[in-house]
Amino acid sequence: MIATVALRFAVLYFGLFCFTSQIASMLLPIPGMELPDIDALPPIRPLVLWVARHLLRLQGEIPYAPSGSGDKTYDWVWMLLRVALAFFGAAIWSVLSRPGPDAVLRTPLYRWFCLLLRCGVGTQMLSYGFSKLVPLQMPFPSLSRLVEPFGNFSPMGVLWSSIGASPGYEMFLGLVEVVAGTLVLLPWTSAAGALLCCAASLQIFVLNLTYGIPVKLLSFHLLAMSLLIALPAVAGLLRIVHRVSRRSNAPELAWRGAVLCQCLFAAYWLIVQTHGAYGEWFEYGGGAPRPVLYGIWNIETQIADGRELPPLLTEAGRFRRVIFEEYAERAVLQRMDD
User: Fold this and answer.
1) Is there a contact between 235 and 228 (Cβ–Cβ < 8 Å)?
2) Which residue(s) pair with 334 in the sheet?
3) What's the 3-state SS for 155-208?
4) N or C: which end of the chain has fewer CB within 10 A?
């Protein structure tokens, strides 16, 4: 019964998400025509803004126009509202209908639901995959980017520039997404495609989360949708592992001793590496104490052989900055020519 209610919630929630997000416009793209964002149009927009103002008591302007960010306050409020609508919808659905069968993964509802998810995930994977397979999403760093100090980069700028600087790696990432999207769209290979989509979307979500890329909501939903599609394949793999483990139970005494030795060996390495990494972190890692002069210092006066060097002197003996690094025994001198 719980699995049936959870399936109904997932159908309503992800159905709303697919038909009120960029996934809807990507299902049947029309070349040369850009469809508006459905979630920014009435009646969704007035409802979301009303919830934000009157229920969540949010102050200030709440932008909803497309801006390249999918993590705006408006998007988070709309996600919360979708959860509430799907929750109440699943409750009403369950009250009005008879309890569904226990084998949720074999119901027609789940199969049709997976078809919708496969189309949504597959088209998104193909769209983002081709933008990397032909290196467009993360282009090679521009000339202005190449002369910009690294310290001025945002975390997103670091990721974009590092992947863009390696077109071969970006094309490999695109190839993985294209293969995953193609496999999940085809009925014969949908299980393998779903598993590959799980791996690809998990990496995308973690990168978006750790580098501050404002597509976290979309990547999280793609990961969740991929997992829902892959449930039958994962269940089958677990059954195979269970059968294999049952066949190999009751090992001989000698084998049990070998297993114990392997476990002790793994535990030894875990303890040694944990202790070493912990000590190194406080010795010369981020936990090490910084020297008193830590920082980047501009050199205003430089004295050589008892006399002050002219400030405009650009010969090799003139320095621009002295930098004291995190480690007390290290300093760097930067010349006038950088």
Assistant:
1) no
2) 321
3) HHHHHHHHHHCCHHHHHHHHHHHHHHHHHHHCHHHHHHHHHHHHHHHHHHHHHH
4) C
- Which residue carries 């950088």 as its tokens? 338
Distance CA 78, CA 284 (A): 46
For the chain, give the secondary structure using H, E and C. CHHHHHHHHHHHHHHHHHHCCHHHHHHCCCCCCCCCCHHHCCCHHHHHHHHHHHHCCCCCCCCCCCCCCCCCHHHHHHHHHHHHHHHHHHHHHHHHCCCCCCCHHHCHHHHHHHHHHHHHHHHHHHHHHHHHHCCCCCCCCCHHHHCCCHHHCCHHHHHHHHHHCCHHHHHHHHHHHHHHHHHHHCHHHHHHHHHHHHHHHHHHHHHHHHCCCCCHHHHHHHHHHHHHHHHHHHHHHHHHHHHHHHHCCCCCHHHHHHHHHHHHHHHHHHHHHHHHHHHHHHHHCCCCCCCCCCEEEECCCCEECCEECCCCCCCCCCEEEEEECCCCCCEEEEECCC
CA 274/CA 268 separation, integer angstroms: 10
Q: What is the pLDDT of residues 225-274, one digit of tens each?
A: 999 999 887 777 777 766 766 666 555 556 677 888 888 999 999 999 99
Average pLDDT score over residue span 66-83: 89
- Close Cβ partners of 175 (under 8 Å, ≥ 6 residues apart): 129, 133
Q: How confident is the model at residue 213 (pLDDT cuts 50, 70, 90)?
A: very high
Q: What angle do CA 255, 260, 261 make, to 5 degrees?
A: 95
Give the bridge partners for 323, in sequence order: 296, 332
Spatial CB neighbours of 146, under 8 Å, sequence gap ≥ 6: none
pLDDT in tens, 109-146: 888 888 999 999 999 999 999 999 999 999 999 999 99
